UniProtKB/TrEMBL annotation, chain A:
<keyword id="KW-0808">Transferase</keyword>
<dbReference type="Pfam" id="PF01144">
    <property type="entry name" value="CoA_trans"/>
</dbReference>
<dbReference type="InterPro" id="IPR004165">
    <property type="entry name" value="CoA_trans_fam_I"/>
</dbReference>
<dbReference type="InterPro" id="IPR037171">
    <property type="entry name" value="NagB/RpiA_transferase-like"/>
</dbReference>
<dbReference type="GO" id="GO:0008410">
    <property type="term" value="F:CoA-transferase activity"/>
</dbReference>
<protein>
    <submittedName>
        <fullName>CoA transferase subunit A</fullName>
    </submittedName>
</protein>
TrEMBL record, chain B:
<dbReference type="Pfam" id="PF01144">
    <property type="entry name" value="CoA_trans"/>
</dbReference>
<dbReference type="InterPro" id="IPR037171">
    <property type="entry name" value="NagB/RpiA_transferase-like"/>
</dbReference>
<dbReference type="InterPro" id="IPR004165">
    <property type="entry name" value="CoA_trans_fam_I"/>
</dbReference>
<comment type="similarity">
    <text>Belongs to the 3-oxoacid CoA-transferase subunit B family.</text>
</comment>
<dbReference type="GO" id="GO:0008410">
    <property type="term" value="F:CoA-transferase activity"/>
</dbReference>
<protein>
    <submittedName>
        <fullName>CoA-transferase</fullName>
    </submittedName>
</protein>
Length: 273, 230
């Protein structure tokens, strides 16, 4: 089930709900994000711990709604394209606490309609999500909790350091983020990776507990070397801070013409100059 | 001794007596405060590198990916010091956006973990510039819940001018101490709501000789803290 970037984009449709792994400006499946930005897809709902994936797709006009707890470039705290779109009213937001987002994915992964959580109580997350309900414990404690609804996804896109052709995948950095949950919450799951290895070589590449996804959780694997650029993908590479600054400060149309209008090979050639 | 030194020590004091819990933070001054507390009067504190690694005096001592942080949030074994774009008298905090949420004048970070933090475990705030723009009657979006909205505990607010707490009958904000060289009137003028001011406001304690040495020689030899407090 090795596929190409185009195969992945070919499975997407206008209006889909797409979960994107990673966190902020860390290990984002940016090669796939770039391909979506080029695709002309519209009306997408993104579910993500937001970073430049959100900014890029919002600026490219692909996104109607973002479901998140934050959008940040980490070293640049505020995402400029997302900020602009929010101020202009051109993107809708479903704003949850970070832990609520985790719980929503966990509920979807477990085929539960909701999971109870304290996060959200007393905050304006309840005001800006009028559909959000609370639930009382049926036990003697009678605690009121937020009933965090499941966040089922049409498609999950994640990027890992290594995988085999079957869809077993391994992270090598310090944090798995929530990439396994994004896959478990989705109907169709695509894993991009720095390198595809034979299964024995993948097993030799680290300890068993860093094998984050297995092949029951993945429908297609695509090799995208440097495919998380300009976000970090440690230990393969860190964030390209200089390029991220260019992304954050450049006029988007100029940025798009210079880096996005070609294919992924063209992007990698353009950033190598 | 500089104002930044006083601020770092005031932040460190937020974690005094907390035991073996996770000290989390946003920003350099709170990070230096957490590490200073761990090196001195609160040696049991767990401190991260800001990502997934637990550090004790610069040495790795454990692993804490985000999903485990959420576990500690839910378990209550954590005390975070966050920033705030707006803060009201009960400690309601906003880091999400300025203006109407539906079409904000200025989109900021989003609520991040503030809702979960504030209802699960102690929360403190670090405000590098104490002003009426931050200390407001009503925040535009309640990201972190305050004491009138079910907060677990808003412990301290440390600013470039003063330390504030919530030791009042209705758990609204009170001036606890003013930093050396700052007057009570300056703090009152920089606060956009009426603050409880005790008859006697002590000065914020000065760093000890040991703390100053740790800060200057060990934790921040390049003096980066001076850039955060001006």
């Amino acid at each position: 089930m090795i596929v190409t970037i185009d195969d992945v984009v070919g499975e997407l449709h206008d209006g889909m709900t797409i979960g994107i792994g990673g966190w902020g400006s860390r290990r984002k499946p940016m090669a796939l994000v770039r391909a979506i930005a080029r695709s002309g897809l519209t009306g997408l709902t993104l579910v993500t711990y937001g970073g430049p994936d959100v900014g890029l797709l919002v600026a490219a006009g692909c996104v109607t709604r973002v479901v998140t707890g934050f959008v940040s470039l980490d070293s640049i705290p505020l995402e400029p394209h997302f900020r602009r779109a929010r101020g202009a009213g051109t993107v809708e937001l479903t704003e949850y606490d970070e832990g609520m987002l985790y719980w929503g994915l966990l509920a979807a992964a477990n085929r539960l309609p909701f999971l109870p959580i304290r996060a959200g109580l007393g905050s304006d997350v309840m005001r800006v999500n009028p559909g959000l309900k609370t639930i009382r414990s049926p036990y003697a404690d009678d605690t009121e909790l937020v009933a965090m609804p499941a966040l089922p996804l049409d498609v999950a896109l994640i990027h890992l350091n290594r995988a085999d052709a079957g869809g077993n995948g391994r992270y090598l950095g310090p944090d798995p983020y929530f990439d396994d949950l994004f896959c478990l919450a989705a109907k169709r799951r695509f894993l991009s990776c720095e390198r595809i290895l034979s299964t024995p070589d993948l097993m030799d590449a680290g300890p068993p507990q860093t094998l984050l996804v297995n092949r029951s959780m993945v429908d297609g694997v695509v090799a995208t070397p440097n495919g998380a650029h300009f976000t970090s993908c440690v230990p393969d590479y860190g964030r390209d801070e200089e390029f991220q600054r260019e992304y954050a400060t450049a006029d988007f149309d100029a940025f798009r013409a210079r880096y996005l209008d070609g294919d992924e090979a063209g992007y990698q050639a353009a950033i190598a100059r | 001794m500089t104002r930044a030194d006083v601020c770092v020590v005031a932040c460190a004091e937020a974690w005094r007596g907390d035991g073996a819990i996770l000290a989390s933070f946003a920003g350099l001054i709170p990070r230096l405060g957490a590490r200073l507390a761990q090196l001195t009067f609160s040696p049991e504190l767990l401190v991260t590198d800001g990502e997934a690694t637990l550090l004790r005096d610069g040495q790795v001592e454990g692993w804490l990916p985000y999903r485990a942080v959420f576990g500690m949030v839910a378990a209550g074994t954590r005390h975070v010091m966050m920033g705030a774009s707006q803060l009201d008298r009960y400690g309601n905090q906003n880091i999400s956006c300025i203006g109407d949420w539906h079409r904000p004048k200025s989109q900021l970070l989003g609520v991040r973990g503030a809702p979960g933090n504030t209802v699960n475990h102690p929360t403190s705030y670090w405000i590098p510039r104490h002003s009426p723009r931050v200390f407001v009657e009503h925040v535009d979006m309640v990201s972190g819940a305050g004491h009138d909205r079910g907060a677990h505990e808003i412990r301290l607010v440390v600013t470039d001018l003063a330390v504030l707490d919530f030791a009042t009958p209705d758990r609204s904000m009170r001036l606890r101490s003013v930093h050396p060289g700052v007057t009570v009137d300056e703090v009152v003028a920089a606060t956009g709501f009426s603050l409880t001011v005790p008859d006697e406001v002590p000065p914020t304690r000065e760093p000890t000789a040991e703390e100053l040495t740790l800060l200057r020689k060990h934790l921040d030899p390049d003096g980066l803290r001076e850039k955060e407090v001006r």
